[in-house]
Amino acid sequence: MSEKTTFWLDGAEIPFTAGQTLLEAARRAGHYIPHLCWHPDYKPHGSCKLCTVKVDGRFVSACTTLAQAGAHVENRTAELDDMRRTLLQLLFVEGNHFCPSCEKSGQCLLQATAYELGMMSPHFDHFFPNRPVDASHPEVMLDFNRCILCSLCEQAAKRDGKFTFVMGGRGMRGRRVILNSESGRLADTDFSSTDHAAHVCPVGVILKKRVGFAVPYGQRRYDQAPVSLLDVAEAIK
Amino acid sequence: MTEKDIIDTILTKHGREGTRLLQILREVQEALGWLSPPAITAIARGIGWPRAKVEATAAFYSFFHLRPRGKYCLLWSDNIIDRMQGSRELMHRLCEKLWLEPGRLSEDGLVFVHTTSDIGMGDQGPALLINYRVATAMTPERVDAMAELIRAQTPLAEWPAEWFAVADNVRKAGPLLSSFTPGSALRAALARGAEAQLAEIGASRLRGRGGAGFPTQRKWQACREAPLKEGQTRIVICNADEGEPGTFKDRLLLTRYADLVFEGMTIAAYVLGARKGFLYLRGEYRYLLEALDAKLDERRRAGLLGHAILGVADFDFDIEIHLGAGAYVCGEESALIESLEGKPGRPRVRPPFPVTHGYLEQPTIVNNVETFACVTRIAEHGAEWFARLGTPQSTGTKLFSVSGDVVRPGIYEYPFGTTVAEVLEAAGVAQCVQGVQVSGASGTTLTGDELSRRLCFEDVPTAGALMVFDCRRDMFEAARNFAHFFAHESCGFCTPCRVGTQVVARLMDKLAAGHGSQYDIQELSKLSRLMKNASHCGLGQTACNPIVDTLAKFRPAYERRLMTLDFVPAFDLDAELSQARQMTRRDDEAAHLFTAQG
Ligand SMILES: Cc1cc2nc3c(=O)[nH]c(=O)nc-3n(C[C@H](O)[C@H](O)[C@H](O)COP(=O)(O)O)c2cc1C
Ligand code: SF4
Ligand code: SF4
Ligand code: FES
Question: Which of A165, B188, B283, B558 could staple A153 via S-S, CB 3.0–4.6 A?
Answer without folding.
Answer: A165
